[in-house]
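Q: What does the predicted 3D structure of histidine kinase look like?
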Amino acid sequence: MKTKSLLFFALFLFLTKCSNKESNTIATDYSLNDSLTYYLEKANDDNLTILFKKKYNNKALEIVQRQTNDSSSRANLFKVANRFFNINDWQSFKNVSKEVLEKSLEKKDTIFIAKSYSYIGDFYSSQGNSDSAYVYYYKAEKLYSLFNDDLNLARTLLNKALLQFNESDFLGSERAVIKALRAVKGENSNDIVYDSNNLLGIIYNELEEYDKSIDYHAKALANATDDKIPSVYQSRATSLNNIGYVYQNLKNYRKAQEYYQEGLKQKNLKYDKPSLYAMLLDNLAYSRFRLNEEKELPELFLKSLKLRDSLKLTSGIVANKIHLSEYYSYHNDSIQAVRYAREALSSARNDKNFRNVLVALKQMGMVEPQNATLYSKEYIHINDSLQKAERKMGEKFSRIEYETDVIKSENTDLVVQNRNLFYVFSILTLISVFTFVFVSQRNKHRLLMFKEQQQIANAEIYNLMISQQKTIEDNRAKEKKRVARELHDGVLGKMFGVRMNLDTMNTAQDEYAIKSRLEYLAELKQIEQDIREISHDLNRENTELINNFVVILTNLIENQRKAFKSKVNFTLDKNIEWASISNEIKINLYRIVQEALQNCNKYANPYLITIDFKKINHSDRIQLFITDDGVGFNLKRVKKGIGLQNIEFRTKECKGKLEIKTKPGEGTALTVEVPI
């Protein structure tokens, strides 16, 4: 029966993968701590139970998960996954495989990404989920092709071919195997060459191209020597069984028996591959049955069935029981024949292996001829469904490849779009930064120009004040000369004349002398008045000289009152000695008042503005208070304009302190305190 070769090859390849998975790990130079090495060795120790292997492997996994995500830790994760694979802990195998995939994607490690895809494909293959397994194998194939990893590419292609074979896509499987052979052409890869030739032999057997099948099995057998493939894999026994099976299909049972007997002679077969040993026993028994040689029959059938029962090989059990049913039917033992046929049908249905169901239904029709019509209808229904499914299978795998390529293309397009968006965003960011820097530099330049203009204006004001001071000094000198002349020419002359006249009248006591003295006394009073007036003029001059800064401020206030509707209250502490204050401080105070008035006029819209200069008691400091009852503003939210910046700057120039209090709707209060 055709299902036997399929079952055996799948089992053989699967067991070979279990043994070889560790050897396929990418070589990496690293040093592991003793505990990790110990746990990994224990997890691979065949002398321990599966429970203990799993326990040690979980401990190794905990250590690896604490390592940083580098190539060494990812290689260790693959080792852990291999050990879960070997003990058939499929869920743990899947979890670790996906974990190493995530870490490989994070580091963009293409080699480990491809390997992870292959491992996840192995998981889905073990669960019979051929669609998902095919997707991951196809992804791994694409990556291995990309960086010319021919050995792993060939192994992945063989995994794909096995999936296609199991789904009866024989032509697709054939193409995949041939691609695998091309990939390893010239490479030292005896195991891949053997598996490829062996699978091609099985494929052509299913296609009933028996000559080709024998040729490829012969090539596989020629490659199954101990120096090429370790004997523990029992590759030679495998090929001998498969060649015998081809001859069995050709009904050359004598030739088939020879190959089966030769296969059973292989050393340690029963211990290395008990499933293969049971298969050879069953096939040998069936060939002898067909040759009418009753030697060791039905004992060989029963021995094989017992071993398969212990190994829980469902497909092998079904094949064994159908052979037993044929054997007992031939010997007219209808009870045993029906019993084994029914058990085979029940097992096939429970296993949902519909090809085995077909074989069992055919046998049931033979041992229960009274129900042959019923079994025949079910056979036809299942066979039609299988043929439809097989016709669609090749299209399904092609569609999976197409959809995977489409998704990859869309992802590539998305990556390109994201890259383009990144470039656009980067360019816009650079333009924004450039614009910000340009505007900032321009503003700084403007500020420097403004400060330079302020310094020029300050120098002009200073020069003006010096010029005014010089004019004042000149006027003072002129006034002194005028006073001197007045005193010399007027007051002194008069006083000298009065003194001389009084001297001449000291001895005279007549009426005329008395009258003359009274007139001279009146003249003295007039001289006294002249002196008083000159004194008053001098006092007025000194006051004007001292209060020159006050005059400038007063003029500013008067101009404000004339130009704007706001009422201005201006007070000046008389204790401030302006003459002792430097021109620089007076200029800055004047400018602060000027800026404050401009801000009030532009923004505050006040009814009343108060300007007050005070001297702090017992301190060489002056306080300037400027308040208004205007609209006010939020000092935290409103950006400071040039006016406020100028006030701050001038306050700092005077080494003073500035305080601004304001709220929306509550006016503004500005306090400047400077040392004198």
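A (community wiki): The structure tokens above were generated from the sequence. The first strand starts at residue 567 and ends at 572. Confidence is low (pLDDT under 50) at residues 1-32, 541-546.
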